[in-house]
Amino acid sequence: MSYERVKQAGKLCIGTKQSTKMVELGKASEVFVAKDADPRMTNKMVNLCKKMGVKVTYVDTMKLLGKSCGIEVGAAVVAVVNE
């Protein structure tokens, strides 16, 4: 399950802005996108990931994605950052 990979990741970047920065810097190895997030927020991220060759994994809900990151609120985008 993809949520387990989020939990096992060493360093995470939570949120669209921070995740975008990590992808642009070439530091993100994988990006998780919540299916129920606003497409206006996530489409740009998905396109950037395709351009940069970063794997995109879709998860069901923002709530579950946030929870697997250890936060109480939902997360639209989470990037796994290479150490």
UniProtKB/TrEMBL annotation:
Classification via Pfam families: Ribosomal_L7Ae
A Gene Ontology cellular-component term: ribosome
InterPro entries, per database record: Ribosomal_eL30-like_sf, Ribosomal_eL8/eL30/eS12/Gad45
Span of domain Ribosomal protein eL8/eL30/eS12/Gadd45: 5-82
Keywords recorded for this protein, A-Z: Ribonucleoprotein, Ribosomal protein
Annotated Gene3D superfamilies: 3.30.1330.30
Keyword Metal-binding: no
Record bears the keyword Ribosomal protein: yes
Entry protein name: 50S ribosomal protein L7ae-like protein
